[in-house]
Amino acid sequence: MSAPGPLLRVRDLCVTFPARRGRPPVRAVDHVSFDIEPGQTLGLVGESGSGKTTTGRAILQLQPASGGSVRLLGQELTAMRRADLRAMRRHMQFVLQNPYSSLHPRMTVAQILAEPLTVHRSVPRERIPERVAELMTLVGMDPKVVHRYPHEFSGGQRQRVVIARALAVNPDFVVCDEPVSALDVRTQAQIVDLLHSLQEKLRLSYLFIAHDLAIVRAVAHRVAVMYGGRLVELGDAARVYDSPAHPYTRNLLDAVPIPDPARQRAKLAEAAPEPQFRGRDGETGPCVFGEDHAASGTPAWHEVAPGHGVSCRFWPPGACPGQELPRI
Fold first, then answer.
1. Which end of the chain is more exposed for a tag (fewer CB within 10 A), N or C?
2. Which positions fall inside the ABC transporter domain (predicted)?
3. 10 Å Cβ neighbour count for 9?
4. 267 assigned to some structural domain
5. Could you tell me if residue 70 is inside a domain?
6. Is residue 273, in this structure, part of any structural domain at all?
7. What is the pTM of this model?
8. Long-range own/partner contacts, residues 291-294 (CB < 8 A, 24 or more apart)
């Protein structure tokens, strides 16, 4: 299956959770739009609660969307019947955050990897053991250990099994939701290298969800920054990191610790005091916009450079009289 243009096209995607216990409905994803090209990685970053995981789940139709369009390989997913959507799941897969909880503890690795092959009838039944061995080799593991259970492996090995399971049906698009956050630094680097090599070998496209900006910089071609369910900046990774246009993006980058203690102390000493703002749920917190974001509506989308956009009422710099872009 192929289609001209982007592999994935998301337009005005919205997800609203209903009111509970007297609290108003929550718009977790608010008119999010982006494209992902074949063989490309889009890094989706933002603080906890910004809507990153909900966006990934809504794209895969694991979370019902309240509005908008999701087209994969030219096919509209949001309006698909269940049978057609099941067939499309061969083209899109999910790598979950925690390898310790995402593998069935009573199934062997062979059974775990054979399950999607059986469900989607990807290979003849007699070829399943051979395909399982191929998948183990693909992710850098010895096929001889397929009869072991998940608890017999380290965290990094379990995540390799999770990746192998996602690749079992030869998908075109994979959502990686914080795939290395539960691992130590050395193992993180190994998994990132594995994802790189698999992308080059299989021409995979990734939506890489993370809060660790250093990891995202290492894997992403383009970066989308989320705040309060909205995209506030989107562009090529190098440009977003080297010339961030939105104050929230600057905040995220400023929050990355520096491994030199002296430089880190100097950086903290230079930090400006934190003004306050009223968030979408009425709580007060650090201001990244310089005014009440919820009450003043969604800022317009400005093109900073070709392929680099920002949603900010303080763009261009100096749009707010008498002050620079807010910085925390």
1. N
2. 8-253
3. 18
4. yes
5. no
6. yes
7. 0.85
8. 293/228
